[in-house]
């Protein structure tokens, strides 16, 4: 593999061993956001205060924050999983869209099943279509040697327009730019919880997300399949020498990654909107997923925590706008800065190394 | 020259790292025009000491004098200014730059704003003639051999005006011929008045080229001797700290029946043209070490890959016992009883980011004992690793640390432990002692002999004839993808092997000769 070295460098950025890096990156990101606000003449304290007020202000807001977190968690898991097997799944976006489309079609077109069958069937259907979309990139990589980054980016666009086409021709609600509503029998919303949470859009997504987070861990670190995937991710050559089928594992990892993203898309339709719109551009969850996986160090717990952080920032930004009249884009700047600082680990280590060294010296003196 | 001030004087250098004293009050002097060898096992502190001299580390105690003046070397820049140059073990060259571009990098001759390439090339040519270092300044680094890359590294230091040259394990990556060339270069540099420090753990080279030797063990100087007044076994003893046997008492237990049959194995190369392996035949008996000699790059790598199932076989067959494995995959061959100690242990044998325990099951994790129904039995994997580490003396800070943190010798021991405990019938060992120190080499050799005595068939591929002499029952020679002949150990001589390695067929026990004389059938 000729790109092995650059991959190593990438992996060092992604699989952060130190907990300090993400924490300091978050703080620095918030500071940078504050700086930008200060330059723009806004009160940063007020703005951040408003952000957290918005998130924890009411039951409705808490519920909606969870709703914002869910897709980020799924795409984060998707990117993280592929990365553990040595692949950069930049195509979570397309897989997410395919999951949505699958859910929309199955959720609308099938009308004779009871909830207990229809909802899970729709979930599995969307998941498989997302997985297939990931497997497509995995297949191109493993059998034709096509770089997965290139094929994923192309598949993202194909997914977007294919999805628009399918909605327009099969399930369009006349006179609108969106699909019909899915059948109630396919809905994944939790009504009683929604009414308890002041009508926030609550669904089973976060529950399935947590299950997937644990599956992520169990598959990778507790099964032989996961052992193979990780071996391929760290050193495909050594994996090959020990009899592991490397192409097959690449295919599998992309398929599983696609399934994670696909489930994310499924809940966006079945749990949140109940319909899918014809859109000119994707919602970008897949790309946010890269950031989530990056900050989370590709570890399931890390991914969960970082999806919560990004979800909180994203949802809270509306509050910032409302009560401190700070434009919501500021939050994108904060997120951008956090990613920048995580990616430039060296910079952060420069900041905290002196502290560590001093502490080390003190310990030595004491000893 | 004897009375002159030493060009380098290290006095009481001490360097501590967390948990270890890498250099413990080391003193050393280097005279002008001498080749001074620094001998020690891996991890003895040689590299640390030289890194201090080159300004990469600061000593905790002690002083450095260059030409009699006390100096603080706070970085490589300062070291270069003082006329110290270092030729690293892993070359630091820009692959897609030319030789001359690499040499002048950082201090390019300029004409206005532009680099004066013609002057750079001329200067490089002049230097290369002056010291007899043959290089072509205008070819790219990626196109030249490793030996030539090393010469570029040497020229780089000379271009920067180095009077004191440090060589870190310079022969580790070279072929036999290239080593001879290097030794010639070292001598001519010394004759030109350069002073040389040679870091190595290879005794032969020291005896051949150095004037004095300083032996370091566990961060301390054991002794400094004049090379003329010592011998290999004395040096080995000082380095390891105990007596070392060079001769293996060869209990030649009678080999059993033929276990491995490789017949007329042919593999095609990447492009069209001639085959990369041509009708290779070898029969290896149980309880036999079958040595394969040859100059690096004559098809050894491809042959091993073909036998192990990593390269498609065009024609011919590979059989182990009763089973025909010609078309079998890697996993299937392993199940049939094949094991391999790959040449590049870090690239092919280990997953460096995996824990030691995970690496210990890399070729066996699929077994039921390491977990049923697709799950991993962590407890058993750890128990297995602890047992292997104990039995094969793999030293690490625990079985949960990443393999990356182990020394080369311990990494190799881990692979050997892993492969031998799988109880293979055929063990393919490629350069099993490459880059290891004497203690570890001895260990590896003992284990191979033990495996042989247990009745395993062993295919030993090595570029070091000494190793083949010491271990093999029979030695075959490969040249340009063909077997040149096969000799019983009693019949082996340097001369015969040399001829065969150069591509001449020799009468041996091989049928190759017979085939050669047969009329081609159409």
UniProtKB/TrEMBL annotation, chain A:
Transmembrane segments: 20-45, 65-84, 96-117, 123-140, 149-167, 202-220, 250-267, 301-318, 330-352
Protein name as it appears in the record: ABC transporter permease
Keyword Transmembrane: yes
Places the protein is found: Cell membrane
Record has Membrane as a keyword: yes
GO molecular function: transmembrane transporter activity
GO cellular component, one term: plasma membrane
Keywords: Cell membrane, Membrane, Transmembrane, Transmembrane helix
PANTHER family according to UniProt: ABC TRANSPORTER, PERMEASE PROTEIN (PTHR47089), GUANOSINE ABC TRANSPORTER PERMEASE PROTEIN NUPP (PTHR47089:SF1)
Pfam families from the UniProt entry: BPD_transp_2 (PF02653)
Membrane topology field: Multi-pass membrane protein
From TrEMBL, chain B:
Membrane-topology descriptor: Peripheral membrane protein
Keyword hit for DNA damage: no
Classification via SMART domains: AAA
Domain of life of the organism encoding this protein: Bacteria
GO cellular component entries: plasma membrane
Keyword Hydrolase: no
SUPFAM superfamilies associated with the record: P-loop containing nucleoside triphosphate hydrolases (SSF52540)
Gene3D superfamilies reported for this sequence: P-loop containing nucleotide triphosphate hydrolases
Single annotated GO MF: ATP binding
CDD domains attached to this UniProt entry: ABC_Carb_Monos_I, ABC_Carb_Monos_II
InterPro entries membership: AAA+_ATPase (IPR003593), ABC_carbohydrate_import_ATPase (IPR050107), ABC_transporter-like_ATP-bd (IPR003439), ABC_transporter-like_CS (IPR017871), P-loop_NTPase (IPR027417)
TM regions (residue ranges): none
Keywords attached to this entry: ATP-binding, Cell membrane, Membrane, Nucleotide-binding, Repeat, Translocase, Transport
Subcellular location(s) of the protein: Cell membrane
Domain ABC transporter as annotated: residue spans: 8-243, 260-505
Protein name listed in UniProt: ABC transporter ATP-binding protein
């Amino acid at each position: 593999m000729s790109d092995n070295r650059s991959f190593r460098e990438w992996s060092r950025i992604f699989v952060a061993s130190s907990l300090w890096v993400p924490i300091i990156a978050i703080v620095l990101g918030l500071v940078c956001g504050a700086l930008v606000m200060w330059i723009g003449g806004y009160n940063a304290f007020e703005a951040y205060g408003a952000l957290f007020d918005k998130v924890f202000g009411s039951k409705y807001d808490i519920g909606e924050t969870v709703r914002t977190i869910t897709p980020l968690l799924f795409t984060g898991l998707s990117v993280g999983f592929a990365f553990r097997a040595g692949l950069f799944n930049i195509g979570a976006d397309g897989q997410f869209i395919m999951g949505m489309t699958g859910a929309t079609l199955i959720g609308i077109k099938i009308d004779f099943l009871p909830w207990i069958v229809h909802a899970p069937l729709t979930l599995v259907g969307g998941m498989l279509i997302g997985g297939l979309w990931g497997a497509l990139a995995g297949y191109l990589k493993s059998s034709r040697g096509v770089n997965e980054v290139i094929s994923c980016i192309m598949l993202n666009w194909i997914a977007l327009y294919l999805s628009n086409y399918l909605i327009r021709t099969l399930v369009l609600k006349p006179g609108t730019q969106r699909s019909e509503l899915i059948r109630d029998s396919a809905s994944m919303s939790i009504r009683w919880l929604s009414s308890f949470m002041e009508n926030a859009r609550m669904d089973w997504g976060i529950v399935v997300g947590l299950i997937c987070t644990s599956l992520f861990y169990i598959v990778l670190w507790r099964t032989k399949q996961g052992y193979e995937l990780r071996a391929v991710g760290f050193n495909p050559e050594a994996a090959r020498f020990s009899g592991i089928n490397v192409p097959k594992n690449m295919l599998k990892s992309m398929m599983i990654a696609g399934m994670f993203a696909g489930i994310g898309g499924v809940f966006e339709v079945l749990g949140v909107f109940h319909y899918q719109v014809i859109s000119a551009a994707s919602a970008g969850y897949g790309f946010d997923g890269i950031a989530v996986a990056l900050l989370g160090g590709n570890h399931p717990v890390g991914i969960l925590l970082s999806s919560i952080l990004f979800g909180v920032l994203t949802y809270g930004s509306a509050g910032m706008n409302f009560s401190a009249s700070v434009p919501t884009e500021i939050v994108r700047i904060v997120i951008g800065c956090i990613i920048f600082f995580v990616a430039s680990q060296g910079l952060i280590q420069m900041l905290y190394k002196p502290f560590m060294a001093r502490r080390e010296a003190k310990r030595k003196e004491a000893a | 020259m004897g009375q002159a001030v030493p060009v380098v004087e290290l006095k009481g250098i001490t360097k501590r790292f967390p948990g270890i004293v890498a250099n413990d009050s080391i003193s050393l002097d280097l005279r002008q025009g001498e080749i001074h060898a620094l001998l020690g096992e891996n991890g003895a502190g040689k590299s640390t000491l030289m890194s201090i001299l080159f300004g990469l580390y600061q000593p905790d105690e002690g002083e450095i004098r260059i030409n009699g003046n006390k100096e603080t070397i706070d970085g490589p820049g300062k070291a270069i200014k003082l006329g110290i140059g270092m030729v690293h073990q892993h070359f630091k060259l820009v692959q897609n730059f030319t030789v001359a571009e690499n040499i002048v990098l950082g201090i390019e001759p300029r004409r206005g704003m532009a680099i004066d390439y013609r002057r750079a090339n001329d200067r490089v040519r002049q230097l290369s003639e002056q010291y007899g270092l043959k290089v072509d300044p205008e070819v790219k680094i990626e196109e030249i051999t490793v030996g030539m890359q090393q010469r570029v590294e040497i020229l780089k230091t000379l271009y920067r005006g180095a009077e004191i040259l440090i060589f870190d394990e310079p022969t580790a990556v070279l072929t036999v011929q290239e080593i001879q060339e290097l030794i010639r270069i070292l001598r001519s540099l010394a004759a030109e008045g350069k002073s040389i420090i040679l870091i190595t753990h290879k005794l032969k080279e020291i005896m051949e080229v150095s004037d004095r030797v300083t032996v370091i063990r566990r961060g301390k100087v054991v002794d400094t001797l004049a090379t003329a007044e010592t011998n290999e076994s004395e040096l080995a003893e000082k380095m390891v700290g105990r007596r070392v046997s060079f001769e293996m008492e060869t209990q030649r237990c009678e080999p059993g029946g033929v276990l491995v049959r490789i017949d007329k194995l042919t593999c095609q190369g990447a492009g069209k043209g001639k085959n990369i392996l041509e009708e290779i035949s070898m029969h290896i008996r149980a309880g036999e070490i079958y040595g394969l000699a040859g100059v690096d790059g004559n098809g050894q790598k491809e042959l091993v890959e073909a036998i192990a199932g990593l390269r498609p076989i065009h024609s011919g067959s590979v059989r182990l016992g009763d089973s025909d494995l010609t078309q079998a995959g890697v996993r299937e061959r392993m199940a049939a009883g094949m094991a391999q100690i790959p040449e590049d242990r870090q690239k092919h044998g280990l997953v460096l980011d995996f824990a030691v325990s995970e690496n210990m099951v890399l070729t066996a994790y699929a077994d039921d004992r390491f977990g049923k129904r697709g799950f991993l039995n962590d407890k058993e994997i750890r128990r297995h690793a602890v047992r292997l580490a104990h039995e094969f003396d793999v030293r690490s800070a625990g079985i949960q640390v990443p393999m990356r943190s182990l020394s080369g010798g311990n990494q190799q021991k881990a692979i050997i432990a892993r492969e031998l405990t799988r109880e293979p019938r055929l063990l393919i060992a490629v350069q099993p002692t490459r880059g290891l120190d004497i203690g570890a080499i001895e260990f590896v050799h003992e284990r191979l002999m033990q495996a042989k005595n247990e009745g395993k068939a062993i295919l030993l591929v090595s570029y070091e004839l000494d190793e083949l002499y010491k271990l093999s029952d029979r030695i075959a020679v490969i040249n340009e993808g063909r077997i040149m002949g096969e000799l019983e150990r009693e019949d082996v001589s340097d001369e015969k092997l040399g001829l065969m390695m150069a591509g001449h067929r020799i009468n041996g026990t091989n049928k190759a000769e017979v085939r050669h004389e047969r009329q081609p059938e159409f």
